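Researcher: I'm preparing a figure for a lab meeting and need a structural model of a single chain. I don't have an experimental structure, so a prediction will have to do for now. The sequence is pasted below. Please return the structure as tokens so I can convert it later.
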Amino acid sequence: MATMPTAPSELGTLLRHWRGVRRTSQLDLASEAGTTPRYVSFVETGRSQPSRHMVLRLAQALDVPLRERNDLLLAAGYAPVYTLAALGDEQLARVDEALRSMLDQHEPLPAVVMNRGWDVLRANQGATRLFGALLAPDPIPPDANVLRLIVEPGPVRDAIVNWSTVVPALLDRTRREAVGGVLDPFTQALLQRLRERSDVRQAVAASGTPSAAAPVVDVQFAFGESVVSFFSVVTTIGTPIDVTAQELRLEAFFPSDAASRAAWSAVETW
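Model: Understood. Here is the structure written out token by token.
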């Protein structure tokens, strides 16, 4: 074990942060990572310089997301090991092909691929038709963000019949679906800004015990005289070793009932 003079340690600060996030003691972390509490303490105070392998073991024991594992490695003086390829790059070709296949197979129902910040990266024709009809005559923005489209004032929000029910569930879902259960700084800031809206605070305050009548919270969109009710299923990439792959998720929408399925078929012809 290499011992160094005690000094402020960026790695130690990050390690303590993640122990706090996971509510894990030095003893529990040491046990999970196959080391000793004394060694964990020395790493946190800067008295010991861990190997790259040990940094990864500690990160894995704390279930740190891949992007932040790279940050831990950099703080320890090592190069990142997890790639950060853009969707569309050759490195993610198989992932991209699988996502496109799932989007196509879900037609004519809407489905989108989003990153961890809820930005839309891919959309099938059904989703393009859904948001195109809601936003018309304006085009779908190239930087469409699902949280902002639903929560902030605009035509999408105006079309959601049960907006006051959807928003509290959506904000709660944003935290639950965060990679590793931890919001990234950008999404955290966006979520905080949305929560500070008076109409959002009112909706959250009025939300009570969920109804037992349905297993999910449906989103009800008004199209003229018709209402189309959707629920969604989210798919993530299994066993990713790329940052982007870990942060991607595909959301597929399904009609909540036969009437909504029929109403959506009518919308398709618009």
